[in-house]
Design goal:
Distance between the termini of chain B: 39 Å
Strand order of the largest sheet of chain A: 8-9-10-3-11-12
Shape of chain B: flat
Radius of gyration of chain A: 18 Å
Largest sheet of chain A: 6 strands, mixed
Structural class of chain B: mainly alpha
Helix content of chain B: over 70%
Number of strands of chain A: 12
Strand order of the largest sheet of chain B: 1-2
Number of helices of chain A: 9
Number of helices of chain B: 12
Radius of gyration of chain B: 27 Å
Oligomer: heterodimer
Largest interface: A-B, 31 and 25 residues
Bound molecules: adenosine-5'-triphosphate, magnesium ion
Order of helices and strands of chain A: EEEHEEEEHEHHHEHEHEEHH
Largest sheet of chain B: 2 strands, antiparallel
Helix content of chain A: 25-40%
Structural class of chain A: alpha/beta
């Protein structure tokens, strides 16, 4: 089976500092992969490379067999136009740590913005689909609320609905619960769990090891820009092979 | 309730006390001084060499009314041009394309760096440089015919305003969180669409107060167009006092009109601010 996302030998520098060192990773259709690791290990950078908010210095990322960001021709790589990159981004939704809802739009308007303005779907249809999504994340009664009138957990659930409204092939999550008060974490993880059960492909950066253990098909541990260990959630979290993974998990739990 | 009963733990019971009004003697004193000064100024003007009957006679004279209408038409037209240019130039300033960035910076440098009155005179006298203007092969005309006082004033004021407005707009665009731009990209928007749908509406909230300021400045700057024969209100007042020598009276007439216009603009700005505070004002 071919992976939905194939990350191959991706490196990224910020000036002198190398945030990603020859990272390779596969994500298969329907799979939930959790990325864990210390602060500064490059998890966010890797995620941002997948939806091209950051462009890698070298290496390649393929989504459904299509090379992202470049066109290969005569042994050279040519950068794609902004329009092409925008089209490629439609295949993956993104949920941010700080929600990034549009504050001047209601929850419903946030969700239909992409479908109507980018995908040119009919507003009435988009609205129906958005209401269905709001029901799915348990916020049907908040359709007309502005983000400033919603709690953090509610905002993040709207953000998930906004990502899903584009009918993406996979959804990227960057620490979706770390900006939330502890009592609001559960409602967001609940929505994500339900999404995983429905078969959505998910690449999730998280510090919620409980969530990873319960939901992830695979857990990937990163440290200093490299993938140290990767495998089934049970194995990596319960019986890590690498000493660094063990030290990280011990510190996280303790 | 004059005596405070002691509570069980020895502290006095203050729960029934009211907070006494403060006396603010300083405020009364300053207010009195200001009233005296105002009265003195008012008396000086009332006794001075001003024929108030002329102010009354000309305040609503047809020429003056036409003048104030022309002033407003020019201010609105030049501001519209200024905002259009300002938005475009601000976006160019923030573009990844170095050519666009340089052009935009050069425009701001040139038009902020020279006096407005000089720019007006240059536009008006463009015919001295280019006797005929047009698009080669398509259309051409004599510059003197095309460059009317209206057009020269519009170009001079609007293009100058654009240079200032672009800086206001740039500040507004920069004030929007970078995460908003990334969220727009993540739902597949291109640069311009993200700017139009997501970034600009949020920037508007920030730029309206300084833009209101700019517009008030522009209303008054239209008076400079009197030097190139544009018939705005100051020009009309001047024409009248050339004939009847009532200089101060007519300057007062023009001044009162400017004050009135500016007074009306402030509540209009409040309305606009409320419109663009959607989603933000509600919670605060
Ligand atoms: N735009 C940038 N400019 C310079 N350095 C950056 C930039 N973005 C990230 N870095 C650096 O790259 C490294 C990896 O950052 P990244 O955000 O990917 O880490 P992370 O694993 O997501 O950490 P965290 O758990 O704190 O979110 C960090 O050392 C960070 O300082
Ligand atoms: Mg991160």
């Amino acid at each position: 089976m071919k992976p939905l996302v194939a990350i191959r030998q991706v490196s990224k520098h910020f000036g002198e500092f190398q945030a990603l060192k020859q990272v390779s990773l596969d994500v298969f259709e329907g799979e939930v992969v959790c990325l864990i690791g210390q602060s500064g290990s490059g998890k966010t950078t890797l995620l941002r490379c997948v939806n091209q908010l950051t462009s890698a210095d070298s290496g390649g990322i393929w989504l459904d067999g299509e090379l992202l960001g470049f066109r290969e021709q005569d042994g050279r790589l040519h950068r794609l136009s902004e329009r092409e990159i925008a089209r490629q981004r439609l295949a993956c939704g993104m949920v941010f740590q700080r929600f990034n809802l549009f504050p001047h739009m209601t929850a419903l308007e946030n969700i239909i913005e992409g479908p109507v303005q980018v995908q040119k779907r009919k507003p009435a249809e988009a609205r129906d689909a958005a209401m269905a999504l709001l029901r799915r994340v348990g916020l049907a009664d908040k359709a007309g609320s502005y983000p400033s009138q919603l709690s953090g957990g509610q905002q993040q659930r709207v953000a998930i609905a906004r990502a899903l409204a584009m009918t993406p092939r996979l959804v990227l999550f960057d620490e979706p619960t770390s900006a939330l008060d502890p009592e609001l974490v559960g409602e967001v993880l609940g929505v994500m769990k339900q999404l995983a059960t429905s078969g959505m492909t998910m690449l999730v950066v998280t510090h919620e090891l409980g969530f990873a253990r319960e939901v992830a098909d695979r857990v990937v541990y990163m440290d200093q820009g490299v993938i140290v260990e990767s495998g089934p959630a049970g194995e990596v979290l319960r019986a890590p092979r690498e000493a660094r993974t063990r030290a990280f998990l011990a510190a996280e739990v303790g | 309730m004059s005596r405070s009963e002691a509570l069980a733990d020895g502290f006095p019971d203050l729960s029934g006390h009211r907070i006494a009004r403060q006396a603010h003697w300083g405020r009364w004193l300053t207010a009195a001084i200001i009233v005296v000064i105002l009265l003195a100024i008012g008396r000086a003007f009332a006794r001075g060499q001003i024929e108030w009957s002329f102010v009354e006679r000309f305040i609503a004279a047809p020429v003056i009314l036409r003048g104030i209408v022309n002033t407003m038409v020019m201010a609105v037209a030049a501001m519209t041009l200024g905002i259009a240019l300002g938005v475009v130039v601000a976006i160019m300033r923030l573009s990844p394309n170095p050519v666009l960035r340089t052009v935009a910076a050069g425009y701001t440098w040139l038009f902020r760096g020279t006096p407005l009155i000089l720019q007006l005179l240059l536009w008006f006298n463009l015919a001295l440089v280019f006797p005929t203007i047009g698009i080669p092969g398509l259309w051409s005309a004599r510059a003197v015919d095309v460059m009317t006082p209206f057009l020269a004033a519009l170009l001079g004021l609007g293009i100058n305003q654009g240079a200032y407005t672009s800086e206001v707009m740039r500040a507004g665009l920069l004030s929007v969180d970078i995460g908003q731009y990334e969220a727009a990209q993540a739902i597949g928007m291109g640069r311009l669409q993200a700017l139009r749908r997501i970034i600009l509406p949020q920037a508007m909230r920030v730029v309206i107060p300084p833009l209101g300021n700019e517009f008030i400045g522009l209303v008054k700057a239209t008076s400079l167009a009197s030097v190139i024969q544009y018939p705005e209100v100051l020009h009309s007042a001047e024409n009248i006092y050339y004939a009847n020598s009532r200089v101060i009276e007519l300057l007062i007439v023009a001044g009162l009109w400017y004050l009135l216009v500016v007074s009306i603009l402030t509540p209009l700005q409040m309305l606009l601010e409320r419109r663009f505070a959607r989603g933000i004002a509600r919670s605060r």
